[in-house]
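Progress against Task 2.4 (sequence-to-structure conversion) is shown through the following example record, which the project officer requested during the mid-term review.
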Amino acid sequence: MMHTRSRVRQVALDRDNQSSTTLGRVDYEDAFIVDAGPPHARRAEQWMRAILQEAPVSARIRLLSGWSAIGLKVSLTASDSTVLGWQLRAGNDDFVLLGAESRIGMPGELLLRRDEQTLLFASFVRFDNPAARALWALVEPGHVRTVRYRSSPKPSDASSIRAARTAAERAAEVAAAERAAEGAAAARARAVSDWATCPAAVQCLGPAAAVSAAAARPSR
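Structure tokens generated for the chain above:
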């Protein structure tokens, strides 16, 4: 991920992007322009997933823990209708809007919009009570730092994660094959032992097992 400040800069939201929210009333908003290119290499939802969902595991855990700590109802079950716990509320090729309800009266939304040269990443928050407003005043600096850090996806992030997942899947497949081979070898050994101790193999093992044991029994 590219974290240089020159590639992520905070801007004021224009009316068109302000009108994208469905919160009804917005008490806090911020927006950042990201020089990530080429923007049209991915749909808006794909960019959002790259920023949030393809982050390293440790980063995703911190994000989910932080959102839960401030009362946001983020889902821990992955699905096509969520992006790292946030519900997909609207979108097309050029923009995507995510939303999360709140347990304490502080619902929020995240907006990503692409244009010809840049990505715009915006946050909207509504305060339904004084406690929510006071809490946000405490967490806002950390929120801004996190958005600056996470909003510029590194092109190599997704490929690195895919490679790591592929390697892990292959290792799991090899381990499963090895366990299956060990189990089969143990079963053959038991069959040979049973054959040696039970001359009437058909009665001891059953017809199919007796055939298998006879094939496995060493010749003399």
